[in-house]
Amino acid sequence: MEHMAEAYRSLAADDKKYIWHPFTQMRDWEAEEPLVIERGKGACLYDVSGRKYIDGVSSLWVNVHGHRKKEIDDAVMRQIKKVAHTTFLGLTHPTAIELARRLAGITPPGLERVFYSDSGSTAVEIALKMAFQYWRQNGQPGRTKFISLKDAYHGDTIGSVSVGGMELFHDIFRPLLFDTVKAPAPYCYRCELGLSHPSCGLACAGELGRLMEAHKDELAGLIIEPLVQGAAGMITQPPGYLSRVRELCDRHGVLMIADEVATGFGRTGRMFACEQENVSPDIICLAKGITGGYLPLAATVTTKKIYEGFLGDYGEFRTFFHGHTYTANPLGCAAALANLDVFEGEKTLEVLKGKIALLSEKLEKIACLPHVGEVRQKGFMVGIELVRDKSTKEPYPLTEKRGMKTAAEARRLGAIIRPLGNVVVLMPPLSISEAELKKLVFIVNKSIKEATK
């Protein structure tokens, strides 16, 4: 035990000496004892001392079938015995070809050309550049702007931040960003139009339509997180909103970009959130769960029409000049193929239905807590909004760190969650057992009570 304690102290000291963590105030970090994760199995993670934690956020929304899934482990090992990486510029390889065929077969109808990259941010960046260049070389060069929702989060690169709308994350970078058109978010709990659903008649969609009409000749595309605005606090869109967005894009000739980085690969109960309302976007952005949470890989999948808008003689320079060193990494593609095999072989989405219903049932008790303003759920995506006053919806000041205190208490009780401000997020692996799911919700319930005393 003393040896383990000494190993932990050494690792913790070196972490604080050398590492800069994302989305973390390092002064706070340096004052705390870090949790050093050593291994994982199924829906759980284990620290260097052997203590077990339920992975309540799928290791930041990526893990699908659990840690150390044999089928994915084996697929990566088989590939590594062949080749770990080969450039995709001027070459190709079997796993990338097969994965592209599979993705074209499971994404919404009409999406059939796959452009690989390495993260959700780059998948979005690629979509924006594709839409911009498509119009520029296909007769409408004036279409240069994008419209997106307030409170949107599409990644952390400059282009993806430009179409984002989270002031806390993005305001400091405003001088670096390009201008976009921002539409009201369908945040029913805190409607900026002062209305209530369903009597509002989707007035936020009406306002989106008005903005699109006003800018119709200059809009290259609309980008949206379908059904759930994840990083904004798991804001769930009312039924019918997404299909209205598709109708508005068709009416105004605007390319619809669906950012399914967080919502894809089963998180909402279907393989892709767009399927819930029978919507086919012009471009879809995929990442996170694409490899089952194993390796960085992303894909931007688009229509034949957009792809053909880039074809021409070499001297016309209609080529899409974009790429990454690790584009279509063979290990990532192998993991992604195995991930899809497990979806099929274990009937993951079918089995998930019962667990979604169980989760809904167990969340009812949390919704009754005195400082829980709203519980939002779509499939296995959950946001629990903490408020100081339930009757007035008065939020806690962010400086009180109520969400972070909830996460700290949950960790003490054996679960890992990561809040978004005052919103406690749950997004466990799809493979989590019913017993583990019950335990996770029990821990979160208890943690919220402790953090809001």
SSE layout and pairings?
Elements lengths: L1 H17 L7 H6 L5 E5 L2 E4 L4 E4 L2 H4 L8 H11 L13 H13 L4 E7 L2 H17 L8 E5 L8 H5 L4 H4 L10 E3 L19 H12 L4 E6 L3 E2 L5 E2 L4 H12 L2 E5 L23 E4 L11 E6 H5 L21 H16 L2 H20 L4 E7 L2 E9 L4 E2 L6 H12 L1 E2 L6 E4 L7 H18 L2
Parallel strand pairs: 3-16, 5-6, 5-7, 7-10, 10-11
Antiparallel strand pairs: 1-2, 2-3, 4-12, 8-9, 11-12, 13-14, 14-15, 14-17
Helix pairs in contact: 4-12, 5-12, 9-10, 13-15, 14-15
Structural overview:
The chain has 453 residues and is α/β, with parallel strands linked by helices. It folds into two domains: 35-65 and 347-451, Aspartate Aminotransferase, domain 1 (Alpha-Beta Complex), CATH 3.90.1150.10; 73-345, Type I PLP-dependent aspartate aminotransferase-like (Major domain) (Aspartate Aminotransferase, domain 2), CATH 3.40.640. The chain has helices at 2-18, 26-31, 58-61, 70-80, 94-106, 120-136, 158-162, 167-170, 203-214, 241-252, 304-308, 330-345, 348-367, 402-413, 434-451; strands at residues 37-41, 44-47, 52-55, 111-117, 145-149, 181-183, 219-224, 228-229, 235-236, 255-259, 283-286, 298-303, 372-378, 381-389, 394-395, 415-416, 423-426. A seven-stranded mixed β-sheet has the order 4-12-11-10-7-5-6, with helices on both faces. Strands 1-2-3-16 form a four-stranded mixed β-sheet. Strand 13 and strand 14 (381-389) form a beta hairpin. Helix 4 (70-80) runs antiparallel to helix 12 and helix 9 packs parallel to helix 10. The longest helix is centred in the C-terminal third of the chain and has 20 residues, at 348-367. 44% of the residues are buried.
